[in-house]
Amino acid sequence: MQRHASLTGASNARLLLGIAGLVVASCAGAQGRFCASDDTLLFGNRLVGSSTSATATISNCGDQPWSFTDVSIHPATGPAYHVGATCATGITLAPGGACSVTVTFAPMVPGQTSGGVWLRNTTSTPDQLLTFYGRGVDAQAGTASLSFAPPALSFAAQIVGTPSAGLTVQLVNQGPAPLTPSAVVLTGPAAYDYSATGSCHVGVPIAAGKACWLTFFFQPAALGERLANLVVDSPQLANLAILPIGGVGIAIASTDADVVEFFYPPLNTYFLTASLAEAAFIDAGGVGSGWMRTGFHFHAWTVDNVASGAVPVCRFTGTPDLGPDSHFFTADDNECTVVKANPYWLYEGLAFRALPPSSGVCAAGMTPVVRFLWPGTEVALLRHRYVVDPAEAARMRAAGWLEEGAVFCAPP
Question: Domain range for residue 368?
Fold first, then answer.
C-alpha cells in the first residue's frame, strides 16, 4: 500500500501496488458490491489557463443495497480541481444503481498537483478514495514520447478466479530526452483483474532509445469481457501514454465431446473427429482398412454446445487430385476464411468447439493443441497433425515436423 505525497492524511489511498509505483485502480471490494469505472483519474500535462474534465461512475454491482456514509473532498486537494457529483452522503444505491463524480482540472500555475474524493460507504470495503493527478505546464510540447511493444495486451479466455500465464510489454522511450514516469497506473472497469511485475518504476528514468518492461497477469473476477488500461504519466510527455488491456472471464461448462486422433500409416496422415458415429465408422473400416487410433485425445464441446469462450473449429480436407492427402483444422475465423478460398482445400464444416489461444498462448489450466506441419516435396505430400502430449510433440520435432504453435486450447 502506498500513499501519494499530497494525500498523507488518507487512511487508504487505494494505491494498490503490483510493483513499486504501479497503481491498480477500479473495481474494489472482494465481494464485488462497490464498483467504480475508475478510481484514479490522470489528467497528464495541461496548459496553464486551460481546463479538462473526467468522470468516474460508481455502481452497486452486488445484490444488496448499500449507502454512502461520507462523500467529501480530501483536504489535500489542490485548488486547480473542481468536483461535481451525483454521489452524496446518505444516498443509497440499489443493486444495479449508479452515481457519478466529475472532476475538472484547470491549472492556473505550472506544476504537479493532486486531489481526492472520499466515497466512504457501508460495504465491506468502506474507505474508498477517488484520486486524481494533473500537471500544469506553460507549453504542451513534450520532450520525449513513449510507445508500447506490443501496442495492446489481449489475454486468452481465462476461467474466473484462476490466474493466467504472463504477457510482457516493453515501455520504449522514443526520445529525444530521458523520460521519468511520475505515475504508472492501471485504470478501467476491470483493472483489479490484472497485476504486474517488472522493471518499470515511478521516478526511475528511461533513457532515450531504451525501454523497461512489465509482465501482466490476468485473474478475472467475473464472466465476460474484462477491460483495463495501463496509463503512464511523465513531465516529459505531452499526453498520457495508454496501453489497452483485455481478457475474457469464462466459466468452463462441462465438455460433451472427446476429440479422438486416428493415423493412416500408408499415407503418413492423421485425422481428428469429435463424432462418436464417425469414430465408430472408421474403426469398422468404413473408410478403408489400415486406420488406427493413436491413443491421443482431448476434451472439447460439440458444435451445438455454445460454451462460454469456446469458438467453432473449421475442418478441411485436401481437394481430390489437387490438394494434400490430409485434413486441416483451425479455430481462427480469419484463417478459416482464407483456407476456404484456397483451391487445394475443401471445407467440410465445423468439427467441434474449443478455446482459442491468445497470441499462441493458452490460459492457465488449459492444454495447448499444437499444430505440426510436414511440408513434403509436393502439395499432395503436405501433412498436418494436432498434438497435446509434450513427449509426442518432442518426437515430432525430432522427426523433422515443423511446429506451428498452439492453434486451440483444450479444457481439463
Answer: 257-410
